[in-house]
Amino acid sequence: MSTDLPPRTANAPRRISTYFHVHLVSDSTGETLNAMAKAVVARFEGVIPIEHIYALVRSPKQLERVLEEIEAAPGIVLHTLVDPELRAMLEKGCRILGAPQLGALDPLVTALSGYLGASLSSRVGAQHALDSDYFERMGALDFAIHHDDGQGLAELERADVVLVGVSRTSKTPTCVYLAHRGIRAANVPLVPTQEPPELLSRLKNPLVVGLVVSPDRLVSIRRNRLQHLGVDPNTDYVDTDLVREETIRARRLFERLGWPVIDVSRRSVEETAAQVINLVNERRSGRLGASQ
Question: Largest alpha-carbon pair distance within the chain?
């Protein structure tokens, strides 16, 4: 008699998700810790974290309240505390409560410290200092806002990147994400009833990137948008044939002008922005070709 288990069928019951508490303790904004936790949890199937975020924890009194919360909802504790006294207090408290804890940046900090032979900074929130990089990012964000959706065309030469594409190709959120990386990004929409601005073909300083998406995907995105706005979906905006023509014209324009192209059909905004950054770096190093 065979002991092999039968293959799982489409009707087999799905595994029940496992919920768990994760306590994120930071002496700064908590953004780094939150992003790291999400990235790690995404590697596991069937688990759903219940996040408890404690930002700007910089005193023993604040940490006492954190430990009370951990005791009330036992789970794993991740932290990025810099102050040695607060860190020791948290580690001791977690030992008493039997809660596993980890300094999320410890492995990387240890590796870099050993490689560089440099001492560590004890300055809290050092990555959020009001230095030139900070103000550069804020300036880039202001630029993205004032050069969104075809605004400020006369100032596009000041941009690092100009994203061009038909409606709903994630131009605006990608520009905002790039701004947070200090890149001045503008975007210009391609409108079916209008010729693209002639200025685009004459730009010298910015890298112009075409964003494309598959027609079927684009129709789906636009239908969802209209539904969200409570607008009648029976318009040319979501007509399959017209949308296909619209995307074909966009691709032909990008090819004619020799712009690099990114297909955002199955990309997140973060992935699209990362590809744009790669293109910017390639251009600066003189390695950028005319196609993607």
Answer: 79
CATH 3.30.565.10 fits 18-116, yes or no: no
Neighbour count for residue 155 (Cβ, 10 Å): 12
- Where do the structural domains in the chain lie, given as residue ranges? 18-116, 132-284
Q: How far apart are CA 257 and CA 95, in angstroms?
A: 63
- 31 vs 24, 91, 109, 127, 260, CA distance in Å? 10, 21, 18, 11, 32
**Tokens found for residue 157:** 């030469």
Own/partner pairs, 43-47, CB within 8 angstroms, 24+ separation? 45/15, 46/15, 46/16, 46/17, 46/18, 47/17, 47/18, 47/19, 47/20
Q: Is 138 exposed, middle or buried (0-12, 13-18, 19+ CB in 10 A)?
A: middle
Block mean pLDDT (10 aa), the chain, length 292: 43 66 92 89 92 93 96 96 94 96 89 78 55 81 96 96 97 95 96 95 97 97 92 92 97 97 95 94 76 40
The whole model's pTM is what? 0.67
Architecture of domain 132-284: 3-Layer(aba) Sandwich (3.40)
The answer to whether 164 touches 125, Cβ cutoff 8 Å, is: no
